[in-house]
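Subgroup meeting minutes
Present: P.N., E.W., G.H.
Scribe: E.W.

1. P.N. recapped why we're keeping a running log of single-chain structure predictions: easier to compare across weeks, and new members can see raw inputs and outputs side by side.
2. G.H. added today's entry (475 aa).
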Amino acid sequence: MLPGLLLAGCLGGESPLLPASTTAEGEIAPRISTLQRASDQEHQRLLAAFGGEYRAPRARAALDEVVQRLAKAGEGQIGRYEITILNSPVVNAFALPSGRLYVTRGLLALANDTSEIASVLAHEIAHVTARHAVERAEKEAESALVSQVVSQVLKDPGRGEAVRAGSKLSLAKFSRQQELTADQISVRNIARAGYDPYGAGRFLSTLGRNTAFRSSGQNQSADDKRLDILSSHPQTPERIAAVTATARQIAAPGIGERDTGRWLDAIEGLAYGDDPRDGVVRGRRYLNSALRIAFSAPEGFSLEAAQDMVIGVSANGAQALRFDSVTLKSGQTLESYVAAGWIEGIATTGIEKTEIGGLPAVLAHGRGSDWTFRLAAVQAGERVYRFILAARGGADPERQMRGIVDSFQVMTPAEAQAVRPMQLRLVTAGAGDTLASMAARMPEQDRPEALFQLINGLDRNGTPTSGQRYKIVAE
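Output recorded in log:
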């Protein structure tokens, strides 16, 4: 059970943590010798899954200072913690029981002052000191034992399924309560450390807006993405209400440090969005400097680059695009690979040999019960780049697929080197600046006005204030 229980992803996903223990002075706290090897393995797994460690000395120094202040003010026994910034655009934070804390650069980009990032770190530390992992592990072990007894001893598989379903619901409630508890501990801790206790509510509000922003980019409203009842995390409005109530018990707004200027200085120049080595999205265009390839999605599509693939959705949700790559087996031809069909349950027909971007390629199509598919495979050595374009109903997306393959190109070394990551830049709003003029400084970003409001913690009607510094995303 250790690998699954070792990690906490407190801003999205499961959040079990292993227990704290007594620490010796100067150790990474809390040190658990019997679990250290598992912790080291989990550390390497995290680095592999999240793009490795991101080197940002100023941001790292700011985080270290925050943790030191939190440790001095913390509830319970808190020792020394070690922070790793993960090279990922996703927004998340984690903790391991060995005292390792993780924040993604995507999360750092959303924080607008030191008290906000302090609330994130305090939340992670709270999970460790509150021994949430051991509670979770014991609860899951008990649940598994009960369902096993029902299904095996009583010979009643149906009853076993019912017990398991009930146990999942119990565990979900258990974990959501852990999150609320960690939130309350973190608010009290950042206040004792001298930070603004309302920073937690502000950052959670930004997280909610970030979810809505990402959802709307895929033609889904935030309401359509409501958390399932079995989710391990309470809904964001519930958390905001809870941390705000806790902050009000401490002091009225305006008490405690925000230290906005110092935090903004610390994250200026931070890489934003995808790493060019993993592929980047520039509007409707995808570029991968490591593979030296590029292509454009059809008009109206929004793209999202993942670690091993690219996903695209049309504005009306009627079409979907997937791009990835595979390796041919020894002796396998491109035509035989496509003819064998790589979409389960879909027969590949109309195979057409051609060239795409100067490379051998095959086009084909297929049909499912609800979707019509256009397929393209491009061979570069043993690697095959695959495009799947699906259209709902009987509409044939042949024209859109032709546009995609016509845009496919192999970049020159110079072109690949020119693909640079986007970065956070600081600009000062002038007297005549508006939301539109500030957003115009980010021409290659999707929905730049909404993005400007998001990364600067502005609500829907928020506008820039003359003389104030703001974050923008630029090369």
